Amino acid sequence: MHRAATFAAAAIIALSAAAPAAASPAHTAAEVPMPAEGLLLTVSGSENTWIRGVLLQCPAQTDGPHPHAGAACTALSAADGDLDALPGDPRPCDRRFDPVTVSATGTWRGLPIAWHRTYPNACALDVATGVVFRF
Prior knowledge:
Blueprint: H1 2-17, E1 38-45, E2 51-56, H2 69-78, E3 100-108, E4 111-119, H3 122-129
Antiparallel strand pairs: 1-2, 1-3, 3-4
């Protein structure tokens, strides 16, 4: 299921950035080209009931698709690209169970990244990853 969610997010992002359909050839999700440098970030709800994704390129572009690209790039730099070592945003969370799954796929400073985790709820995600998955 996670792989399908990642492909779906890649297709959504690619389609939103593409020219009108009449001017470009059709692509399947498996053929969506990934950027030479950058991370496709996805967040999905329990059992993929919803999904959203964004492309993060560092150094951050002021008109890029990630709403907090500068801060996200700074956090990734502080963690040296290790998403398990992000500084996060420590604070208390409730114990409500409403799982969210996140992924990061692409390259960071020339190194391939294929990372995903499931958190018990959106607050726990934010505590662990901070601004990187705030989109």
